[in-house]
From TrEMBL:
It comes from Pocillopora damicornis. One of its GO terms (cellular component) is NatB complex. SUPFAM superfamilies: TPR-like (SSF48452). This is N-terminal acetyltransferase B complex subunit NAA25 homolog. Belongs to the MDM20/NAA25 family.
Length: 707
């Protein structure tokens, strides 16, 4: 008894040592236990885990084989073995553990649950289905039954042939759920969600509407207006435009700032217009089937927003602009419409109401070129925006400095006025006003912008370091102008001015990632990687952002000769991707446990996108090449390195590279506010992706040559 208590205490210390990453101590404590109790397999498993974390993989595998041969069934040992196999990247061994334990205890609910989750980790949906049905037969609990249903759904989603899912698997899942509905056994919201998901996969939207209009819909309580929103979406799928239009009108009145409602409302309304739809019975509730009716409805929503005491929502105002855009695209016009609804008028009205918001430019960008084809129209439009500003002073009406309004405006009014001016400058740049400037004029304008930036810093002194300065946009505009001067003059004379400007602006606004990205761009153009490393670290890139913006550093660090730094950056990047492969199954397991079935395909799709990431492939091959070149002293060293590491197995060129790899990079991460003609086009992005893929294939072929 005393030995057992001592062993338990020592095992607890062993676990604490593992949690503290003190692997050496964990091995010593495990050995101490095993000297007294040779057959304590939990201690053996913990020792195997400590050895694995110490880099002694072969010894760890030997211990795990010994434990497997002993066929333990106690939960602590099984859990320790599960962790060990997970960290070995051998999740396929975990089901074997629990199958072995279940043979000794065939009616243990917890072991069955662990076995189901083990199959979830490796994506064996057929086995999941079998285990879940066994669980339900033994314990008659609804979640187990719906685990089986979801496993069938996943078989259909992942089937190599879409027809298999449509004709066999999804109908089977549908029948299984309907059996429960007919027997009155539906208990939870997750079960209704799964049924709707199956009907969506089958395209049975009429039946899905029936579910939403039945007693089952009462269980949909987690999300506001979920039933009404799904009903409107299903009506759209069925092309029942008049009913869909009415449904989305009601949703808009409930939540007037939900942009997706306006998009669907306009889609349904324009579909009715194209069909020349007319009501059969005027007494019924009518949809909006003409431009006049759409105008009237949107105007009523805007009017309702204006009467509210709180600040208006942006959605109704943007919906009016979206209507103008659709009319232009579809060439649908009506002479009876009021002139006050013209795009220019709506743009100006929107600016008057929301011009002091940072989002103003991005809200208006899709509509700025609608009715402004000529430069004269653009000049008049910008002048109208300037006239919408409060006048600065009678003595100097042309002044644009914030300090001129200090005496007669409050702090809030000053910052709002500054943001309005900044948005006007952003709009002017997007409309092409900077394109016609000479290099000297761009330099002069950049100085003016930096003056406005400096003036604006006075009003941001109380801001936290995590908040952006009100006038940061002026510094960004000035930087882009000087970058254009460099490009047009064919030299880098402006680089030092850029560095001074940007470092000064970043000091005042240390959390502005756009300033950091601009600085990285300038430093990399000068071959200075060390500052880039610090700036990249300051971006605090987390999780998925590694795949989206990591390329801003990885593409330069090795090319500019910083091999040690490159190795560190590559390993950090790869750690995220390999961590995703290990952790995503745990998210899927959690989704099964909590009934979030609709999230399971999303997690699997995310894992696939990251596994096939172009950035992942690029960094992986760069890291392998760097490892070879920095450690090999001769050709024979290179060849032996390839033989030892089996690198060729990792880079087969038999994959359909052009088809499979996913480019998840955000190539537009840097805000430029350029005219559309100068922005990165889809064709250019596709060409960039193709070149990156070809470069990866070339590196694979290099590996073959070296070996």
């Amino acid at each position: 008894m005393k030995d057992a208590n001592t062993a338990g205490t020592t095992a607890g210390r062993d676990l604490h040592a593992l949690d503290s990453m003190n692997n050496k101590l964990a091995i010593q404590l495990a050995d101490k236990i095993l000297r007294k109790q040779k057959d304590l397999y939990c201690a053996k498993a913990l020792k195997g885990l400590a050895l694995l974390r110490s880099g002694k993989t072969a010894e760890s595998e030997t211990i795990m084989v010994e434990i497997m041969e002993a066929k333990p069934a106690d939960d602590p040992t099984l859990q320790a073995m599960t962790i060990c196999y997970r960290e070995m990247q051998k999740p396929e061994m975990i089901p074997c553990i629990y199958e072995m334990a279940l043979k000794q205890n065939p009616k243990n609910e917890e072991l069955y649950s662990h076995l189901f989750m083990a199959y979830v980790r490796i994506g064996d949906y057929k086995k999941q289905q079998q285990v879940a049905m066994n669980l339900y037969k033994l314990f008659s609990k609804n979640p187990y039954y719906f685990w089986a249903v979801m496993s069938i759904v996943m078989q259909g989603i992942m089937a190599s042939e879409e027809k298999l899912g449509k004709t066999m698997l999804f109908p089977l899942a549908e029948k299984m759920v309907e059996k429960f509905i007919n027997e009155g056994k539906i208990e939870a919201e997750a079960e209704v969600h799964l049924y709707l998901m199956i009907l969506e996969k089958l395209g049975c939207y009429e039946k899905a509407l029936g579910v939403l209009r039945s007693d089952l819909a009462a269980k949909l309580i987690s999300y506001m207006d979920e039933r009404e929103e799904k009903e409107a979406i299903y009506l759209t799928k069925l092309c029942k435009w008049h009913e869909a239009n009415i449904a989305f009108k009601k949703l808009i009145l409930r939540r007037p700032d939900q942009w997706s409602y306006y998009q669907s409302y306009l889609t349904s309304a324009f579909s009715l217009i194209k069909q020349n739809w007319k009501p059969v019975d005027e007494s019924e509730e009518l949809p909006d089937y003409s431009l006049e009716m759409i105008d009237k409805f949107l105007a009523s929503v805007v009017e309702a927003e204006q009467t509210k005491e709180k600040r208006s929502c942006r959605g109704p105002y943007l919906a009016q602009l979206e209507l103008e855009k659709l009319c232009s695209q579809e060439c649908i016009h009506c002479d009876s419409r009021q002139s006050s609804t013209s795009s220019v008028y709506l743009l100006i009205e929107y600016f008057k109401r929301f011009g002091d918001k940072h989002c103003c430019f991005w809200d208006l960008e899709p509509y700025l070129h609608l009715n402004l084809p000529e430069i004269l129209d653009k000049e008049k439009f910008v002048e109208a925006l300037r006239n919408a500003l409060p006048s600065v002073s009678d003595e100097d009406p042309e002044s644009s400095h914030v300090c001129k309004v200090l005496l007669w405006l409050s702090f809030t009014e000053v910052t709002r006025l500054m943001l309005r001016r900044m948005n006007i400058e952003l709009i002017s740049r997007h409309l092409g006003f900077h394109c016609s400037l000479s290099c000297d004029e761009k330099i002069a304008l950049s100085k003016e912008y930096m003056k406005q930036h400096k003036d604006g810093l006075v009003y941001g002194q109380s801001l936290l370091p995590t908040e952006l300065q009100y006038s940061d946009g002026f510094a960004q505009l000035a930087s882009h102008l000087l970058l254009e001067v460099n490009y047009e003059s064919g030299n880098t004379d402006m680089n030092w001015h850029l560095l001074i400007m940007l470092e000064s602006a970043l000091k005042a606004s240390p959390s502005n990632h756009q300033l950091k990205l601009l600085l990285m761009k300038v430093y990399c153009s000068m071959g200075a990687v060390s500052p880039c490393l610090a700036l990249f670290e300051g971006l605090e890139i987390k999780h998925i952002e590694q795949d989206v913006v990591g390329y801003t550093l990885t593409r330069y660090v090795e090319a500019l000769g910083h091999f040690e730094a490159a190795s560190s950056v590559y390993l950090t990047t790869l750690k995220f991707f390999y961590g995703n492969q290990k952790n995503t199954p745990e998210h899927i397991i959690a989704a099964y446990k909590y009934g979030s079935f609709e999230k399971i395909p999303e997690f699997i799709d995310l894992k696939r996108r990251l596994d096939l990431s172009l950035h992942f492939a690029t960094v992986n091959y760069e890291n392998m090449l760097l490892d070879v070149f920095t450690k090999a002293n001769s050709l024979s060293d290179v060849q032996s390195h390839f033989d030892e590491k089996s690198l060729l197995d990792k880079c087969s060129v038999e994959k359909y590279w052009m088809k499979d790899l996913k480019d998840n990079r955000d190539l537009k991460i840097l805000q430029t506010w350029d005219v559309p003609e100068r922005q990165l086009s889809k064709e250019q992005q596709l060409r960039c992706e193709e070149q990156e893929v070809s470069w990866s294939v070339f590196k694979c072929l290099l590996f073959g040559l070296y070996s």
